[in-house]
Amino acid sequence: MLSQGFGDQAPPRMPVHMKSGERFFCSEDLALKWRNSMPFSEKGYPRIVFAPMSKWEGIGIPDVVYVFADPDQISALVIMLGSHNGEALNTLAPFGAACHSIVYAVDQIVKEKPMAIMGLFDISQRREALANSLSLTMPYSLWEGLSDDLDKSCLTTHAWKEIEKRL
Predict the structure, then answer these.
(1) Do 77 and 98 form a contact (C-beta atoms < 8 A)?
(2) pLDDT under 50 in the chain at which residues?
(3) What is the tens place of the pLDDT at every residue in 59-76?
(4) What is the pLDDT of residue 144?
(5) Which of 165, 148, 146 has the alpha carbon at shortest distance from 79?
(6) 106: closest CA among 133, 135, 80, 140?
(7) Is the pTM of this model over 0.90?
């Protein structure tokens, strides 16, 4: 696995970072344990569309919503998620490759209490990502609830108005 690198078995022209690996796990056994715990779905997804909300009408309602957000925006979204069920745990932050938050969010679609998934923790990909952003991916049903109740959310408070000035 790329996590552990190819070591002496690496082809001569392989980039150095692939020879030594990404060092996400202390051993190959732990890397395999992680891979085997991924919530891969049997449901077929022939395509994934990344599109702004303004384009959804022509494309259709998404199964999951993927948002890039800075720490202030993530904070607001996490608070808003909790405002719908009165629970503190509404967001998970599992480690995965840059796109794995989508896999975890798809797994949440069928859950009785679905959660949002924070992502973009993959250090090997963060160098390519927006510097001050993480992702938040959630089933559309959660997004719909947030959107419906904006007028009752933390976005209407004095504190958010102050934060908004620095966005």
Answers:
(1) no
(2) 1
(3) 888 889 999 999 999 999
(4) 93
(5) 146
(6) 140
(7) no
Task: Please enumerate in sequence order all residues whose Cβ is within 8 A of that of 63, keeping only pairs 6 or more positions apart, or say none.
Answer: 45, 106, 109, 139, 140
> To which residue do tokens 């890039």 refer?
68
Amino acid identity of residue 151, one-letter, is D
Q: Is the dihedral of CA 79, 85, 87, 93 positive or negative?
A: negative
The residue ranges of every structural domain in the chain are 7-37, 53-164
Residue 38 buriedness (CB in 10 A; 0-12 / 13-18 / 19+): middle
Helix residue ranges, H only, the chain: 16-20, 28-37, 56-59, 71-82, 100-108, 123-126, 140-148, 158-164
Place of tokens 């089933």: 139
Report the pLDDT value the prediction gives residue 45, as an integer from 0 to 100. 59
| CA pair distance 104, 82, nearest whole angstrom | 19
